[in-house]
Structure formats: C-alpha cells, structure tokens
Amino acid sequence: MFKKDLRKLYKVKRSKLSLDQIDQLSMVIANNLLKLPIWEKTYYHLFLSIEEQKEIQTEYILHILHAKDKEIVVSKSNFENNTLTNYLLTDNTKIKKNQYNIPEPIDGIEVPHNKLDVVFIPLLTFDKKGNRVGYGKGFYDKMLANCSPDCIKIGLSFFEAENEIADTFEGDIPLDYCITPEKVYSF
C-alpha cells in the first residue's frame, strides 16, 4: 500500500482504540523494550504523546528511563522548516502543548542530534523491512539524517507490520527495531 492510504487506514484503526486499550498496550510495549540490547547507552530521545492522536503513552518508557538513570531528551517542533530542536528533560523543564497539541519543552539545555544514542520514533505503521509511515512532514527523517550512524532507531506501534510500504524513497530512514504489543521486530 501507499503511505497516503496507510496513513488514513491507521488513523482510523487508532481512533477505534479505547483509552483503556491504549494504556494497556502502551504498558506492554514499554515492557517489551526491556528485551532490547540498548540499555548501556546514555542519551535517549523520547517523543511525548499526543493524546488527541491516540498515540502510544510514552509515560511508561519515561519511567523506565528515569529508573535506569538515563539522560532523556525531548523535542520542540519548528513548523516553518519541519525540524526538531532537542532539549534535555530535567526537573526544571516546563512542558506546554503547541498549536497541534504536541507536548513540548518551552526551552532548556539544547542537545545536538549527533549526541543521541537511541531515538524512539512515533509512527502510524511500518513494514517488515523497517520502513515507517509517520504523519508525513519529515521531522524525524531530517533529525535522524543528522544523528550519528550508530544511533539506534526504535519505532513504537500498536499494530503489527505491513508487508511492504510501496512508495518509500531514499530520504526515508528505516528503523533498527519496532516494538508492538505482540512482537519485537529487528531489521
């Protein structure tokens, strides 16, 4: 299927999930992350969930990262050029929803993309080769292009892999892993 069609399909699938289902599935996904060999790293980029889009609740992952005493990085979106600026999440970080209901840091200690060791990536769906479909603005592709080559890219999905995304292009950056409630995919 094409990205445009997959976006529509998976937005509908997510819209049918209840808040209880989202909570339960998000907890299972967070627990499945513990199976990955990623915990010796330092800087972990985590997206903050857009509740209105029924995204995976990353609060559980946040708790794991805090418990493991990791450096947690969150982003602020620039919609003029579709880029992300990363900030260290500290006790003093103030979070505010932007005009698209994305929770973001107001400001803070900036962290360059090339310092990120692990990036958790929001997505609508992915395929068996590690290609992903997001919201279509390219924020994460631009950021990932500036990360170090050994940065680990992890997608989080409520649903299992599609066989193939038909219209991938060379600017798309594939995942290393994708975590679902049922499976840990490795690419």
Automatic annotation (TrEMBL):
It catalyses: (6S)-5-formyl-5,6,7,8-tetrahydrofolate + ATP = (6R)-5,10-methenyltetrahydrofolate + ADP + phosphate. Its cofactor is Mg(2+). Keywords: ATP-binding, Ligase, Magnesium, Metal-binding, Nucleotide-binding. Its EC number is 6.3.3.2. GO terms for molecular function: 5-formyltetrahydrofolate cyclo-ligase activity. The keyword Metal-binding applies. The keyword Metal-binding applies. Pfam families: 5-FTHF_cyc-lig. PANTHER family: ATPASE INHIBITOR/5-FORMYLTETRAHYDROFOLATE CYCLO-LIGASE, CHROMOSOME UNDETERMINED SCAFFOLD_24, WHOLE GENOME SHOTGUN SEQUENCE. NCBIfam families: MTHFS_bact (TIGR02727). Belongs to the 5-formyltetrahydrofolate cyclo-ligase family. This is 5-formyltetrahydrofolate cyclo-ligase. It comes from Pseudofulvibacter geojedonensis. The lineage of its organism: Bacteria, Pseudomonadati, Bacteroidota, Flavobacteriia, Flavobacteriales.
